[in-house]
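Help wanted!
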Amino acid sequence: MNDGLQFALKITFFAAPFAVIMKRSKIRELLLTSPASQHVLVKGWVRTFRNNQFIALNDGSTIHNLQCVAALNSIDEGTLRRITTGACLSIQGELIASPAKGQAVEVKVTSLEVLGDSDPEKFPLQPKKHSLEFLREIAHLRPRTNTFGAVMRLRHAMAFAVHKFFNDRQFVYVHTPVITGSDAEGAGAMFRVTTMDIGNPPRDEQGKINYKEDFFGRETNLTVSGQLEGETYALALSEIYTFGPTFRAENSNTTRHLAEFWMIEPEMAFYDINDNMQLGQDLLQYVVKYALDNCKDDIEFLDKRSAEEEAGKPQEQRSELGLIDRLKFVTENDFQRLTYTEAFDILRNSNPNKKKKFQFLIEQWGADFQSEHERYLVEKHFKKPVILRDYPKEIKSFYMRQNDDGKTVAAMDILFPGIGEIIGGSQREERYDRLLKRIEELKLPEKDLWWYLELRKFGSAPHSGFGLGFERLMQFVSGMTNIRDVIPFPRFPGNAEF
Ligand code: 4AD
Ligand code: MG
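Answered by r_m:
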């Protein structure tokens, strides 16, 4: 047993007859407690220390700090010097009404222990504003800032709200695999999973890499989407969803792309494209309302921070609404629904297109929309979230249900202000012959899709689903402009530190 622990045990043993072993209170609870000089124990990290007296302590349970006040000269010199920004403390004291402005209660310190020192010369987080770029380099310490504390508490609440939404509607949470055998989805470049010696892989007679000798006896990758496996469960349990990490090895260095992101993918038997669009809208409105109702302090903080960020931008780039107003706007308005072809006409005739302001001009029906087009529709034209449906089949995946016009598929994308595409989904092709024909046309590996095709042979049913990018949702709800700042440890090209 180490000495420290032995010492602690002895203290507890001798102290036990005289003092009740204290339970630690969370700062969030204490700030809501009526003060009556009750004895409390708190533990947390020092944000600031003023006048050798006032400690602002934070334990991550809330955006707010607890003010702990030590009587002058009550703490010995040696300990005083160790109370520095970043140090971890255990404090006991009395909870009293605060005479100062800014907080209802404070703790009058009766004893204080330094659990972990933090050299103020070396601790990178100073009590001042740091740039988000700098904080990304110290992703192990950034959760100790107000901004990242707020974003990560909100992220937790959003994940919880997603599960609650589906659980309340009797959807079954299915864990689809992270390692998959084929790139059936075609959603993007994949990360190879292998245990072979890449410097000297086993080869077959023709000298090609022999994957039969790899761990799984075949080529394997990290999943880009749980959809296809999700469909198998929807065609048994009716309504399911997945919520897990997905991986895309695209070289996209944007504020909206990650190489590792979390996706929520519901899949529903007996839903057509209209039911699917409605579920997407209901889910987004529910989780945004959940944030407004349950994360008030953090959202208010993020609202102010995003207003300050906006104020630093040139007038024409500023968002017309503040964060809280944008959130309310989504919960209170129906989403605008229209077809790709209708949107194409609007964009072709739009001012930025005529004046050649778009980087990609809208000329030929069938072209994919870029985020500049999506944002024009949402932010300038309709000024509300938009659901686009019935896209040209050439720019969408093989599994989307073919419409009778022979040109489009029953796809749907939901577009959000400041974000662009937040949801992508479709009604699925449930007709065996049609699906097989499309797989052949696109020269997809039919043998890898045998099980997916079999779903259409045995008790096929109309069904639909979509994918909601969790970090894009987080960007919207937190007002953070870079997707790298809404996930604890972002993965993007050239970066897998931590
Ligand atoms: O549109 P995507 O590629 O659709 C699918 O993967 C379907 N299999 C989903 C389904 O129907 N079950 O991706 C869905 C969503 C996008 O709308 C976007 O919000 C997010 O996932 N997304 C990303 N988020 C962060 N980084 C990336 N690289 C992303 N790629 C997609
Ligand atoms: Mg998409």
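OP: Thanks! One thing I noticed: Residues 250 and 358 are 24 Å apart (CA to CA).
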